Structures are given as structure tokens and as C-alpha cells.
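for the recovery benchmark. C-alpha cells below, seq after
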């Protein structure tokens, strides 16, 4: 196999590795960097469990070659918060029961992070439309939508906006 050097910034840290040129970004993140919060479900880009942000844009890491992200800034679920200090979005998912088994949750949190950065005050229709990119087999999505609405409230309170 042909190998290539890759240098990226992942969750604010520089990473430089020599990898197989055909390595998927999801495998790079999970196996080379040890960040196992990014889940791989369908392995063909349909379910959204593997969604991460590359230069602020939601990307399916199971359909992206790691070498395509050379020089990019990558954010995974591990970038959002910590157990003792959840991000507003994570806190809202906890408060409003926006997760069930948790398998799809990292991808949903990342795609909602992108949405909230682009639009800090989305309405239910906008949230629902963006959630079309992620599949969850455990819930009917209402708690997820309520969670994102709660995150908007928490983020507004952080900014001191009423």
C-alpha cells in the first residue's frame, strides 16, 4: 500500500502521521488518534453517525479519505465538552432526553453544532430539516428537536441575550 504523510489539527491539537493513502477519515480518527467518540454505522454515508466537522463543515468521515483533510481543522465529538463541563448542546441533550442508546448522538451533536454556528436561533422546521441527515432508530426525534431548542436557550443565556 502507498503511504502518505498527513498533518491536521484535531480538536485544537496538531497531529502528524504516516498513513495508508486509502485510509478513511473515520479510521484515522478512531484508530490512529484514539478518538473513539466518532461512531461508524452504515459505512456508506447514509446514517450520519460518523459526522464530524472539517473546517467548520459537517462531513461524513466514513466516506472521506483522511488524506483529503491535509492541513484542515477537524472537530470531533471530543471537542465539545467534558464530563464535568458539558457544552450547552450536550447539556440540553442530557436535560431534554435527546439521546437514547447514544450511538447516533455524536453525529447529531456535530451536525447541530454546525447548524447553531450558522444560525444561532433556528426554528423547529430548520432543526428538523438539518436532522434529516442523521438516522436514529431509538426515538421519534421530538426529544432531539426539544434538546436543540433548549441549547439555543442555554447559548443565549451564556451570551447574555434574552
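predicted aa per position
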Amino acid at each position: 500500500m502507498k503511504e502518505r504523510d498527513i498533518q491536521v489539527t484535531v480538536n485544537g491539537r496538531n497531529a502528524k502521521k504516516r498513513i495508508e493513502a486509502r485510509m478513511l477519515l473515520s479510521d484515522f480518527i478512531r484508530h490512529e488518534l484514539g478518538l473513539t467518540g466518532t461512531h461508524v454505522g452504515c459505512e456508506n454515508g447514509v446514517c450520519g453517525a460518523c459526522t464530524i466537522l472539517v473546517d467548520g463543515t459537517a462531513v461524513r468521515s466514513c466516506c472521506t479519505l483522511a488524506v483529503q483533510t491535509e492541513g484542515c481543522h477537524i472537530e470531533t465529538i471530543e471537542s465539545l465538552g467534558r464530563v464535568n463541563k458539558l457544552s450547552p448542546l450536550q447539556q440540553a441533550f442530557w436535560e431534554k432526553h435527546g439521546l437514547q442508546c447514544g450511538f447516533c448522538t455524536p453525529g447529531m451533536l456535530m451536525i447541530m453544532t454546525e447548524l447553531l454556528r450558522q444560525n444561532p436561533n433556528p426554528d423547529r422546521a430548520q432543526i428538523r430539516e438539518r436532522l434529516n441527515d442523521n438516522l436514529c432508530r431509538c426515538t421519534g426525534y421530538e426529544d432531539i428537536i426539544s434538546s436543540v431548542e433548549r441549547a439555543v436557550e442555554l447559548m443565549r443565556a451564556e451570551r447574555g441575550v434574552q
